[in-house]
Amino acid sequence: MPHTQLTIPQACAYLATDKKHLLRLVSRDAFSARKIGDGEFLFRKSALDAWVWASLASFDRKTICAIEAGICAHHGLDPARELITPLLNSSLCIPALAAKTRRSVIQELVTRADENHKVWAKEDLIHEIHDRSEECVTELLPPVAFPHPSHPVPYDIAETFLAVGIHHSGLAFGSPRGDMSHLFFLLCVKEETAQIHLLLRLFRMLHEPGVVHSLLDCQTPTALAETLATRETALLLE
Description:
alpha/beta, Mannitol-specific EII, Chain A, four-stranded mixed beta sheet, three-stranded antiparallel beta sheet, 9 helices, 45% helix, 15% strand
């Protein structure tokens, strides 16, 4: 559930850290915690997820892998199985986005998902994703943006989906450095357990040298989907 609360040991396992570092993060207001006794706290899982996402760009590869393993373990998921490949559908890959603004990128990707019967409430979903993109940074890995709702949207979509698009000239999408975004991954999930570990897996896949450039070179929807699937397979074999 979105409001699941974790104890100190559970939060440490979830974030792959120790108690000292966890409490240091609390003292620095990285995320909030509710004190329930002498030295005891409860942590809202959604707040931990938000901190992980906001901090991804500062984590090294080892830390990202450890956190992904901790989150998967919490949800009873196997970190060694494919997560992105089952979602890949060439019909949801757009190798040349026509959009000219942040909102129209979101609209074009959601429209494509709607045309493929993935969406129930198109306008509501567009509004939710656009609001999220204005509230927080969704471009953590230049030149890639990850527009997504702030929480699962079970009533807006028919099933969890991933839509991918390339914008060759680039668009401003809220990068703190002012970079232009060229590659867009729109992830919408029905289940609360899916969002953060799918985002983490995507980030890991794209973080490797050369991967983003190989995706930007794709000329067809099929090439985009196949390149991503190949990258996830290689990641799991490392």
